[in-house]
Amino acid sequence: MIRRLLIANRGEIARRIIHACREIGIESIAVHSDVDAGAPHVAEADRAIAIGAAAPADSYLSIPRILDAAVRTGADAVHPGYGVLAENPGLAAACEAGGITFVGPPSRVIAAMGSKIAARQTMAASGVSVVPGETPADQSDDGLCQTIERIGFPALVKASAGGGGKGMRRVDRSDAVRPAVQAARREAATAFGDGTLYVERLLERPRHVEVQVFGDRHGHLVHLFERECSTQRRHQKIIEESPSPALTPALRARLAEAGVAAARAAGYVNAGTVEFLLEGEGDRASFYFLEMNTRLQVEHPVTEAVTGLDLVRAQLLVASGAPLPWSGSAITQRGHAVEARIYAEDPSNDFLPQAGRLLLYREPRGPGIRIDSGVIEGSRVPVHYDPLIAKVIASAESRPAAIARLVQALRSFPILGVATNVPFLLRVLLHPAFEAGAVDTAFLDREMPRLVAPAAPEPPLHVRAAIAAHLAATGANQPGAPAPRRPDRDPWNTIAGWRN
């Protein structure tokens, strides 16, 4: 059994892991950079240790510093969360060599699935459909150009390593082939240190649906149904939900079976996600393996909401050597859940990340509402890291009801101090195509001009300070403060639903 867990991450996922540790009786140890010394996850952990300067390479991305922290604190396990080092086989291998439990799959699995080319080959060999394409042995510009011409247009040039849309270029005509290959190679080499490319046929208007899988070291491997992730911008997910409105029962069964087959082919252990592109509608729709994420996903709460299971707790139990705490036949979907990610960013300025102190931050409460956040009022959003502030998850008995709850929660979420994407999220959720469940992976890119509006100017500093001071004086500024017993007609005390 794990006794002391080092959490090699920050923000809301670190707080989520700390909570799971507390339930099981594991001592939690938070790592932090200099700029995160006062962060909520540091205060909430049983212990904390500084690992370096603000720059990620000097702290959260430094494997030697993470391992040194584990040794100095006597940690017998490391949880990477997601992002940062979660899919770095180097950290998993270093833990294995040092006799430290890595909460995740073995390093060999991470390495194999981290190569998109190797993953495609593994899936194809196991009978899982992959997007039609080719990995040329000749990786020169000429070799890749010839491959694209052979596959036909439109095509996608993609980096073998990494993800998130980096090292990816769409090609629609012959005169754009060579520039696309060169640009994709440069970006892939810069982002991932590997310029290897492959080519796929571009699927027009597919949906992005992923299957949550979970395995233990006793041979048990199950799926926890699917998540719909088609609402994305430049291959970055914006809103996720479960179940997918695109799946029929028969198609859901086929997709889940393919997800388990893919995980079994990879020799998978712990929590992971198998991502597919879905083409067509109804029982006859086709789906193709896209990639495997060898970690917990940001959107895992929607799976927890519809299954009633705790994935992080299960991660810790499985890493400790225990069998899965549930069997496949006992896992069911109930109701619907939708998640929106709140970022400190300016959608009207190409989603430019924002930084600053949260002068006012009031999380909404209510039936079916869950907030996973890495901040509290007064926290500073630094310039050094991903500007994710919080995730809002709404669940209900039906999709329309879950969306309505999420919309109301976002409207009741006042944040002052930094610009956020909340108005943008509301426009997306209220878009007729989203409400109808008729979105594909290019939906946001097509609709962006209508979804992005100029940002409202921030109130002057003295106005923001006056608002925060008034709320503090009335007690409404305190975390967990009870709601007034009688309706208050003062708009400053009901700021969440009022506009000047």
Detailed description of the structure:
The chain has 500 residues and is α+β, with helices and mostly antiparallel strands. It has four domains: 4-103, Rossmann fold (3-Layer(aba) Sandwich), CATH 3.40.50; 132-201, ATP-grasp fold, A domain (Dna Ligase, domain 1); 207-451, 2-Layer Sandwich (D-amino Acid Aminotransferase, Chain A, domain 1); 461-497, no CATH class. 33% of the residues lie in helices and 24% in strands. The protein has helices at 11-24, 40-44, 63-73, 89-97, 107-114, 116-125, 141-151, 177-192, 249-266, 300-307, 311-319, 399-411, 422-429, 432-435, 443-451, 461-474, and strands spanning 4-7, 27-33, 47-52, 77-79, 101-102, 133-134, 155-159, 169-171, 197-201, 207-215, 221-233, 236-242, 270-279, 286-293, 336-343, 345-346, 352-353, 356-357, 360-361, 369-373, 380-381, 388-396, 415-416. It has an eight-stranded antiparallel beta sheet, with helices on both faces. Strands 3-2-1-4-5 form a five-stranded parallel beta sheet. Helix 4 (89-97) runs antiparallel to helix 5 (107-114) and helix 7 (141-151) packs across helix 8. The longest helix is centred in the middle third of the chain and has 18 residues, at 249-266. It is globular, with a radius of gyration of 23 Å. The termini are far apart. 46% of the residues are buried. The model is unreliable at 479-490 (pLDDT under 50).
Keywords:
500 residues, alpha+beta, Rossmann fold, Dna Ligase, domain 1, D-amino Acid Aminotransferase, Chain A, domain 1, 4 domains, 8-stranded antiparallel beta sheet, 5-stranded parallel beta sheet, 16 helices, 33% helix, globular
